Amino acid sequence: MTDHAWLDAAAPYALGALSAEERAAFEAHLADCAICRAEVQALREVSGLLAHAAAAATPAQALRDRILREARQVRPLTARRRSLRPWIAAAAVVLAIAAGVAYVKERGNRRALEQAVAAARDSLAAQQQLVATLLAPDVNTAVLASKGRPPSARVFWNPSRHRVVIAVFDLPPAPAGRTYQLWAIQTGKAPVSLGIFNTAPDGRLTTALDVPPALVAFDVTAVTEEPVGGSPQPTQQPFLVGKLSGGE
Amino acid sequence: MAAGDERALGELYDRRAATAYALAMAIVGERADAEEVVADAFGQVWRTSAQFDPARGSVPAWLATITRTRALDLLRARGRRARAIDRAAAVGDGGLAAPLAEPGDAPDRGVERDEARRLVTRSLAELPEPQRRVLELAYFGGLTQSEIAAALREPLGTVKTRMRAGLEKLRGSLAALLSEGRS
Predict the structure, then answer these.
(1) Does A113 touch chain B (CB under 8 A)?
(2) Count of domains in chain B?
């Protein structure tokens, strides 16, 4: 069965309307299929709201007392005694503050914070890579220009690390479906791709690209605009070209 | 056990018990059984909350799933499921063990809950009858898709399609509630 056919089971599953055998088969599939998992999760949120369609009914006050009394006698399942059931704790705070939305906001904020921390960590690691690449004594540099007018770029090649850092200025982002590609050219040989890149809306970019280990010498770098994904060989005349110099 | 957790359970109860209880009533039909179901459901939430993963669903959806499952288990244990199926086949409109809310039902406590009930009831009422029916038979009646197909004398594929179409429409009409429940 294809994944698409499996998707037909998502709605009955979310409604709890699969037989035991059907459910077991679908759950086995769910373990491997992120598409169906996402669909089930979304549909389950919808089916969960059907509870609101039930005619209003209010439980006896004694029920609350009974549930709390029983909870006092049962230790929640948790391997570590001291691990708090985090969402309950979060819910307690949040429910006290406001209705509904708050829980989600808290969750969203935490997720956003985690993402920000991860992004900062990645960014720091990338910066360290850039600096390490730039500060080596044997770095070669090239200033790439287009007849003295913007855009321009600088390329720093660190042969021992097999990396280049490219810093680009005043280059508008490539149009939809296109990308920029950096080339290493050794006189008399075919250009070798050093990778693709795109600039930010402000026309700038600084990034590190890997140099193929087999490429131990080149004297010119150039930038072309290519279809997304890059090309094996340049398909147009480079609009930025620069000769490498330096290296001690 | 930390006192704060217990208080949290109390607050979760205050916020969600009425909806859970109404759902249990709609399925089991008797007050004492419905209270049993809600007590079981909150007991399960309490014991297994450490395993709850917010990334995989919201607390209300989780609680609704547990409550519904417990309610159907109780019906099964009482040997009353067969009757529910018969009724589903026999009754012309809806065929449910307990009446569902009508649009405009008397409100109960909790503004937010009223709002949710109003929206869900109205959205459900706006579905084409065949779609609404399969959703209700499955969710409140506890019938499997094959049982629904047999009861309605429709092909299984038709039942599946209606379930999917019904849920998709609700996903659209209840988008506001869904985005409240999940970021």
Answers:
(1) no
(2) 2
Residue B9's domain spans which residues?
Answer: 1-81
Which regions of chain A does DSSP assign to beta strands (E)?
Answer: 140-146, 149-158, 163-169, 178-185, 192-197, 205-210, 220-227, 240-246
Report which of A101, A61, A102, A70 is spatially closest to residue B17, judged by C-alpha positions.
A61
Chain A, window 69-88: residues with a beta carbon less than 8 angstroms from a chain B beta carbon: 70-72, 74-78, 83-85, 87-88
| Closest in B11, B47, B106 to A56, CB measured | B106
**CB-CB under 8 Å, A50 with B120:** yes
**What is the tens place of the pLDDT at every residue in B174-183?**
998 888 754 3
Whole-prediction pTM value?
Answer: 0.57
Strand partners, A91: none
| Residues of chain A with confidence (pLDDT) below 70 | 1-4, 75-113, 115-116, 118-130, 147-148, 246-248
Contact across the interface for A54 and B139, Cβ inside 8 Å: no
**pLDDT per residue over A115-158, tens digit each?**
667 666 666 666 666 677 777 777 888 888 876 678 888 888 88
If asked whether residues B77 and B125 sit together in one domain, one would say: no
- Tens digit of pLDDT for each residue in B41-88? 999 888 888 777 777 888 889 999 999 999 999 988 887 665 566 555
Nearest to B127 by CA among B181, B168, B160: B168
- For A219, the 3-state DSSP assignment is coil
**Helices B3-28, A61-73: crossing angle, 10 deg rounding:** 130
Chain A and chain B share a number of CB contacts under 8 A equal to: 251
Burial A139-161 (b: 16+ CB within 10 A, else e): bbbbebbbeeeebbbbbbbbbeb
- ipTM of the shown complex: 0.86
Say which CATH class A1-51 falls into. Answer: mainly alpha
Per CATH, the architecture of A140-246 is what? Sandwich (2.60)
